[in-house]
Amino acid sequence: MEQEAEERLWEIVEEAEVSLVITQGEGGFPHCRPMTLLGYEDDGTLWFVTSRSSRKVSEIDRNPKVTVCFLAFEGGAYAQMFGKAEIAEDPELKAELWMEEWGEYWEGPDDPDYVLLLVRVDKAEYYLIEEDELWVIDFS
To answer: Which fold is adopted by the domain 2-138?
Structure first.
C-alpha cells in the first residue's frame, strides 16, 4: 500500500499545474512563490533552479525548512512536501542541467548567480478531493 501511495504522490507532482515553494520570510511569516520543478528523485529529493541573489536563498540560509505545494486542479488533488532546502553549486551538475532558455536570466552554467535548489523531503502528504482522502508518506 505504501508503494502505491508513493506512486500516486509522484503522479500528483507530475500532473500539477502549479508548484509553490514556501520559505520562512522576514518576521517569521511564510513567503510563497511559484517555481518550476526541474526534476525529482524517488527518495524524496526535489530539484529547482534559482538565483543565488534571490530572496529565497537568503531565507533558506536563515532557516532551511521549506514546504513545497503541488496543485493538480485537473486531477482533483494537491500535495505538500516538508523538508530542508540547500543550495547546490556542483559545476558538473549545473552544466548537465543547464537549459539554453535560461540565458535570459544567467550568462551560462558558469554564472555564479545560477544555482540549483534542492529540497530533501522528510514527509509528504496529499489530499484526493473527490475521495476526501488524506495520505501521509514518511521519507526520513
So the answer is: Pnp Oxidase; Chain A (2.30.110)
CB 46, CB 81: distance < 8 Å: yes
DSSP 26: G
In this model, does residue 114 exceed pLDDT 70?
yes
The residue extents of the domains of the chain are: 2-138
Helix (H, G, I), strand (E, B) or coil at 21: strand
- The CA distance from 135 to 125, in Å, is 5
Residue type, position 31, single letter: H
Name every residue whose Cβ is closer than 8 Å to that of residue 9 and which is 6 or more positions away in sequence: 79, 124, 126, 135, 137
What's the pTM value of the predicted model, to 2 decimals?
Answer: 0.92
Tens of pLDDT, residues 73-106: 988 999 999 999 999 989 999 999 999 999 999 9
Q: Percent of the chain at pLDDT above 70?
A: 99
Residue with cell string 513545497? 68
What DSSP assignment string belongs to 2-34?
Answer: HHHHHHHHHHHHHH-SEEEEEEE-GGG-EEEEE
pLDDT confidence of 28, banded at 50, 70, 90? confident
CA-nearest of 124, 22, 127 to 73 is 127
